[in-house]
Design brief:
This protein is of the alpha/beta class and 238 residues long. The chain has two domains: 32-128, Rhodanese-like domain (Oxidized Rhodanese, domain 1, 3-Layer(aba) Sandwich), CATH 3.40.250.10; 144-236, Glutaredoxin (3-Layer(aba) Sandwich), CATH 3.40.30.10. It has helices at 2-31, 37-44, 57-61, 76-83, 100-111, 122-128, 144-150, 167-182, 198-203, 230-236, and strands spanning 34-35, 50-53, 69-70, 92-95, 116-119, 156-162, 188-193, 211-216, 219-225. It has a five-stranded parallel sheet with strand order 1-5-4-2-3. A four-stranded mixed sheet has the order 7-6-8-9, covered by helices on one side. The protein is elongated.
């Protein structure tokens, strides 16, 4: 019985050691994602980084870190759609209000192959240390009447509704700009910042950025949300 008891004790102890080691490895792995305010600030000051705000639009507009992109972690479809346009070759610095949502988002992104860092304590900690934030500007809102006046009745017009914080919009920007340069006389390009122009965005029922609308002879003939190829846009603009 003593031999059996000793063997059982050794098994329990060895199992406990293995379990503790596994837990420690997991904890350390997650902890490596978290940075203090100072470390986070130093990190985002480097060139070639991506800053990701994982809060809601309303929270973002109440104050955000300069150059931050937006992908709401609580909106699964939106988060997946927007983060698909992030560059895996560049580190991502994520934050939320307190660091909880961004820690989960950072872990998810890490599993998808991104190198991610999380702001420990979130924007709350950032504010406590007196770091600056940017908020939405008091931009004059475009009414539906103002918008309609922008569309000439005798030209083909491409309207690009995007936002400075929208990863897919940033991915589409060089495609749109290149198309405008290659076909300067074929159509007029109008860019509207949907992140600031809430009135017209709501009036037109736009829920996804980017959204592209083509008008011919003053009438809407084509509309599409999300990433669009240069070839598809060119064909629709003919």
């Amino acid at each position: 019985m003593k031999i059996i008891y000793s063997g059982l004790l050794m098994f329990v102890l060895s199992t406990s050691v293995i379990a503790c080691n596994n837990n420690n490895n997991t904890t350390n792995d997650v902890d490596t994602l978290s940075l203090s305010v100072k470390e986070f600030e130093n990190g985002i000051a480097k060139p070639g980084v991506q800053i990701l705000d994982v809060r809601s639009m309303q929270e973002y507009q109440s104050g955000h870190i300069k150059n931050a992109l937006l992908a709401d972690w609580t909106n699964t479809d939106e988060f997946i759609y927007r983060t698909q346009s992030l560059d895996k070759s560049k580190p991502v610095y994520a934050y939320c209000f307190s660091g909880v949502r961004s820690a989960k988002a950072a872990q998810w992104l890490k599993e998808k192959g991104f190198k991610v860092y999380n702001l420990e304590g979130g924007i709350a900690a950032w504010k406590r240390e007196g770091k600056s934030l940017e908020g939405i500007s008091n931009t004059k809102q475009i009414s539906l009447k103002d918008y309609q006046a922008l569309i000439p009745a005798d030209k083909i017009v491409l309207v690009d509704f995007g936002a400075a914080w929208c990863p897919p919009c940033i991915k589409m920007e060089p495609i749109i700009d290149s198309l405008a340069k290659l076909q300067p006389n074929n159509f007029s390009l109008i860019k509207i910042d949907g992140g600031e122009q809430n009135t017209i965005v709501q009036s037109l029922g736009i829920t996804v950025f980017p959204t592209f609308i083509i008008y011919k002879n003053g009438k809407e003939v084509w509309k599409k949300q999300g990433i669009v190829s240069s070839e598809e846009l060119s064909s629709q603009l003919k």
